[in-house]
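Re: that chain you flagged

S.,

Sorry for the slow reply, it's been a week of failed gels. I finally had a moment to sit down with the sequence you sent. For the record, here it is as I used it:
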Amino acid sequence: MNKENLKIIAEKLCADSKGILAADESTNTIKKRFDSINVDSNFETRRTYREILFKTPDLNKYISGVILFDETLRQKGSDDVLLSEYLISKNIIPGIKVDIGAIELEKNSEEKLTEGLDGLGKRLEEYRKFGAAFTKWRAIINIDTKKKQPSEYCIEANSYNLGRYAKIVQDYGMVPIVEPEVIMDGEHSIKDCFDVTSKTLKSVFKHLNIHKVYIEGILLKPNMVISGTKNEKQASVGEVASMTIKCLKDNVPDNLPGIVFLSGGQSNELATQHLNEMNKENTDLPWKLSFSYGRALQQPALSKWLGEDRNIESSQKALFHRSKLNSDAASGIYKPEDEKLIL
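Prediction finished late last night. Pasting the structure tokens below so you have them in one place:
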């Protein structure tokens, strides 16, 4: 493990108010996205769409890295150059999703456990040959207060796998993004989310330490502390920002280089507003606060593209604009009036 190199990569991924584009949707997930715009999801359309995203002019002003799906890492663009090589040529770091999805935690359980440790080292060796320098693993934690979920077992089992994953990745010279996502779907309050997120983060860092993971060589990709989508009382932007920061200060070590939030189903605008509020009100945090958004970055571009070549330029402008707004939010200088994009 080259600790210095891991630290350099981790810091670069969240430097200069830049963030990460998550383009690692599984085949099933991207099919749903394509269905929404009446585009058939196949090898070629997925390649075309992701090439449009990656080749957005000047994207590297605001995007430091891109998380790819296994299929995409192996694909070449229309110029017969690997998409990962193109990203590297633009000083954007390619990353790769390495978990293989979630299964039932136990028979007939609603709780989930993420898999993918078997054969991980061998896959990492291959991914490095394609230029990947960082990885992502997502754990799923659902809240259901009536059923007393999540269980201690769910949190501990997922935290153990995150710790083991991170150690293996670092041993292969790559930076692990650790993503324990407390899902926002549900009737729970923002306090419920705070409590579960706190317990989850505490467990995750316990297991990272047990596995002797080099904390300066990872990034954390957590949820924001937010009201459940079905809760009657939706917390304000200020409440979300203050409670998220308190949760992080209570549970995240100071030597972590950066925190790159997931959007978790928030609207494009709200995900940006929350990030901006955190950075605007907190200028002395020990870690960088940035973004690693998927749908909240891509949705405007997807809506503009509609599978038509004639819409490529407007699609790329939409992604560039959304990336700039989130970069501004990572500096605490976002303004709602800047949302208007003139094409």
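What I noticed first: Residues 77 and 85 are 10 Å apart (CA to CA).

Talk soon,
D.
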